[in-house]
Amino acid sequence: MKYDVTVIGSGPGGYVAAIRCAQVGLKTAIIEKYSVLGGTCLNVGCIPSKALLDSSEHFHNAAHTFKTHGIELDNLKVNLEQMISRKSGVIKSNNDGIAYLMKKHKIDVYNGLGSFVNKNTIKVTGQDGQEQQIETDKTIIATGSKPVNLPFLPVDKNRIITSTEALSLKEVPKHLIVIGGGVIGLELGSVYARLGAKVSVVEYADAIIATMDRALGKELQRVLKKTLGFEFFLGHKVTGAQVEGDTVKVTAENPKGETITFEGDYCLVSVGRKPYTEGLGLENAGVQMGERGMIAVNDHLETNVPGIYAIGDVVRGAMLAHKAEEEGVLVAEQIVGQKPHINYNLIPGVVYTWPEVAGVGFTEEQLKERGVKYKSGSFPFKASGRAKASMDTDGFVKVLADAQTDEILGVHMIGPRAADMIAEAVVAMEFRASAEDVARMSHAHPTYTEAMKEACLAATENRAIHI
Length: 467
Ligand code: FAD
Hints:
Elements: E1 2-8, H1 12-23, E2 28-32, H2 39-44, H3 46-64, H4 66-69, H5 80-104, E3 108-111, E4 113-118, E5 121-125, E6 131-141, E7 145-147, E8 160-161, H6 163-166, E9 175-179, H7 183-194, E10 198-202, H8 214-228, E11 231-233, E12 237-244, E13 247-253, E14 259-264, E15 266-269, E16 273-275, H9 282-285, E17 308-310, H10 321-335, E18 349-351, E19 356-361, H11 364-370, E20 374-380, H12 385-390, E21 396-402, E22 408-415, H13 418-430, H14 435-439, H15 450-461
Parallel strand pairs: 1-2, 1-6, 2-3, 6-17, 8-15, 9-10, 9-15, 10-11
Antiparallel strand pairs: 4-5, 5-6, 7-16, 12-13, 13-14, 18-19, 19-22, 20-21, 21-22
Helix pairs in contact: 1-10, 3-5, 3-7
Bound molecules: flavin-adenine dinucleotide.
């Protein structure tokens, strides 16, 4: 078969790229080495983690806040098997949805490992070892990433686990030791803490979610301690882990240089992800690698070989599903001569803990570092009528605006539904709104979004109404 475009990898980068290619009239194929479509995000990432976060949040609320709402339950218990099975059902229904979309757009799906024979020929090796070759004019590599393994932390997938195993545990851990205070560790730690596990987070940096605005990590740390009993060990360098029967012993060096040992029944290693290019045969097409295992691309996401592009987790930038999707669309449109653009500064980052955390644009630390003069306005959820009604009063919205022009430069929030609320900030910043522009727009009452309006009022001239 001969295609205009072949996409390797069916994660959010790959399948979205394939759909956009088909939409703009290109004959398109997609190759996926697993038997189901959707990549990390759908099968072992965004979607299953959110399914478990939702289920566990229901349990936590039923156990801790329903009574205050006047709802009394007896004999509340967790059926983890059912929870995991519901999660699997959510994945399956999305797998089917993507398969349907491929059919709808007449995209040919090949199941098997895709590897370059040369620039225009790709071999697909099925799980049964059967090989077939396809010819292609252009190729989009979207092979994603996999968890980083540290040599002194031997993942046995049983007691020392990655996020993938954490999404399908057979029991609620008694004590889950989470190595890494980033998004994945905190989200999956929250799932099991809500179900009754003691959770200890061991982090090398001096802050959790350290790449986001520092105020967010501080508040999240406070709230997770208060509501879920999380313990944090920041500035701790993990030096080893070993399994003894049903126990995992993790050793770490504390900030004083002393060695301490944590004992738990599970240890989740969530220290980051690395680009995945194994078996792709990039050398056969002459594609050059960049730093840290990434495929090197130019501003148009094209590799050093004309006609071969790479997108998503396998290239530089944030490892986020929506970033991969935007890149997939960009490449497809470029192939047919359009001039799309991505503003990487406006890709929002979200943590789906409760409260949720979200940010877009420059952090306060970045503005200081760059010497930009800015104004800051904050509004706490404890002053929001909507948040009081739902008893979700932790957190705040912080708006950073240019000191002279009032243009919004960054929005950082922690609070109820922050993951959804950040969209307003992205829209405002895409259209280069000033803080006063947003402050003068009507926000429905009572909603959490009023906190955004109030923070903009605070940033404009310190004229928030409700604080
Ligand atoms: P992937 O989704 O990794 O897909 C790559 C695909 O390529 C895979 O299916 C792989 O099997 C296939 N492949 C690889 N090599 C070959 C080959 N040679 N031939 C054929 N197929 C191949 N991001 C968010 O934005 N929001 C979240 O809430 C979120 N939560 C996450 C939670 C967890 C636990 C994890 C692990 C990640 C999460 N992420 C989240 C990150 C998100 O999953 C990734 O950023 C996203 O999946 C990257 O998309 P991609 O298309 O680049 O690659």
